[in-house]
Design goal:
The chain has helices spanning 5-57, 66-72, 104-110, 147-198, 214-262, 269-300, 313-323, 325-330, 349-366, 418-428, and strands at residues 77-82, 113-119, 122-133, 136-146, 309-312, 334-339, 344-347, 372-380, 383-390, 432-437, 443-450. It is of the alpha+beta class.
Length: 457
């Protein structure tokens, strides 16, 4: 419980509020103390001026009662510091301070002194002014204010701040608890959903918090992740089923012909040669399937080696075109070759041939009987472009990226590796494979390679 986010969030929030409140309170008290001290000094200075003036007005009478002066200054304490012994300035009992309480020389120079002293167990903040008879300094009037009066003022402030601080902490605590619950509730739901996904349940219902904050963004990305994991698992199942089927078919044919040959069922030389031909073709088919899987694994692991050699792109396209000529003839298709350039570039010829062959294989797979497949070659603006166009059913906008994903097949048949390998190989060669298509209007796949020419000898 103490280590949970639900506890730590409000605790940290409350701790921040407490520390901020303490700092603010200390600063406020310090400023208030300074303000009260400054104001008290100003009051004492004003009062001391009034006392000296009142004394000057009544100097001839020499009977100014001390209590009348105290009333005139509002009750602050008046002290007398004699400089000339025997001088009488006030009638009645006088509160006399020792001469050392006031720096007489400084008082004579400055005319006013601010001082603190202790008298009869009481600390005073005071202002002293000189008493002159003619040019002679005979004494000093000291007007003092008990320090306890100043302390009582900021103690009252402290009590009020404590009440406000306690109320603020209570409100902050409730607010922190509310916010922590609001934040942790969707996080706990996401954690539970993550446990479900970890257990293989990719169809878990992920909560969708309202708003557009970070938690909502996290929830949306988690939903996307779960969907992609579900799709990846489905693709893996499809791949295993497809590969199992693709492997089983040639293996069944090979086993059947090998059994017939070994048991002597086929004794005619021509039929034996035909059986051996079928075995060879099915072995090549198996080799191609295994090669596709290995190529994809190498590309994903970035362990794919690219050769750099001079490649005659015109000759390469003619080879790829010839490989599917018999298929086109059997299916009565309009099979065209349009070579508009004769570029020679530095690249990996075998891999470029593999890309073009994969694009042509995909075109013949989807083009209808009697349809059209066209292979064209162009060079423009430092780029070599090989285009394979067909009159098949086309590709919808939603499927344009899916068709390049490994193991994804539009109709569930085949391994779904041809186009994925073609694009990855193109990227490894510094090029790209793009598609332009509309549903029902055929497709146009374009391989673009940089026109890196061989150095002149």
């Amino acid at each position: 419980m103490l280590g949970s986010l639900r506890f730590r969030l409000p605790a940290l929030f409350l701790l921040g509020v407490v520390l901020s409140g303490l700092v603010a309170s200390l600063i406020a008290i310090r400023f208030f103390q300074s303000y009260e001290h400054t104001r008290a000094i100003a009051e004492l200075r004003s009062e001391s001026v009034g006392i000296v003036q009142l004394y000057a007005q009544n100097i001839a009478r020499a009977d100014v009662p001390e209590h009348s002066l105290e009333q005139a200054i509002g009750g602050d304490k008046i002290f007398y510091v004699p400089v000339v012994r025997g001088a009488t300035l006030l009638t009645g009992p006088q509160t006399e301070l020792p001469l050392g309480t006031v720096d007489v020389n400084a008082l004579a120079k400055q005319g006013t002194l601010t001082l603190t002293f202790r008298f009869r167990s009481t600390n005073y903040l005071a202002v002293a002014r000189p008493i002159l008879l003619g040019d002679q300094l005979v004494g000093a009037i000291v007007v003092g204010k008990p320090a306890s009066q100043l302390r009582s003022r900021w103690v009252t402030l402290l009590e009020r701040l404590a009440i406000a601080f306690g109320g603020g902490v209570a409100v902050a605590g409730l607010l922190g608890l509310y916010l922590s619950r609001r934040i942790t509730r969707p996080l706990l739901a996401l954690s539970a959903a993550a446990d479900e996904v970890a257990g293989g349940n990719y169809g878990v219902d992920v909560p969708k918090p309202r708003g557009s904050d970070e938690i909502s963004h996290l929830s949306a990305r988690f939903t996307d992740m779960a969907a992609k994991l579900a799709e990846s698992e489905q693709l893996s199942r499809n791949f295993l089923m497809s590969v199992s089927h693709e492997l089983r078919t040639p293996l069944t044919a090979i086993r059947g012909h090998v059994a017939a040959l070994s048991e002597g069922v086929i004794d005619d030389a021509a039929m034996q040669e035909a059986s051996l031909g079928v075995i060879g073709e099915e072995a090549i088919r198996l080799e191609r399937l295994v090669g596709d899987v290995l190529d994809l694994a190498k590309l994903d692991a970035n362990r794919f080696t690219v050769l750099h050699e001079e490649v005659d792109m015109r000759h390469l396209c003619e080879r790829a075109y010839a490989a599917f000529a018999e298929v086109a003839r059997r299916r009565a298709m309009d099979y065209r070759l349009d070579l508009r350039a004769h570029p020679v570039i530095v690249t990996d010829g075998d891999r470029v041939l593999q890309i073009i062959s994969n694009l042509l294989s995909n075109a013949f797979r989807w083009a209808p009987e009697g349809g059209r497949v066209e292979l064209s070659l162009e060079e423009e603006n430092g780029r070599v472009s090989v285009v394979v166009a067909d009159t098949g059913p086309g590709v919808t906008a939603e499927e344009r990226e899916r068709i390049f994903r490994p193991f994804w097949s539009r109709d569930g048949s085949g391994t779904g590796l041809g186009l994925a390998i073609a694009r990855e190989l193109a990227v490894a060669l510094g090029g790209s494979v793009d598609v332009r298509s509309e549903s029902g209007l055929g497709s146009r796949f374009e391989l673009v390679l940089p026109s890196r020419r061989p150095p002149e000898s």
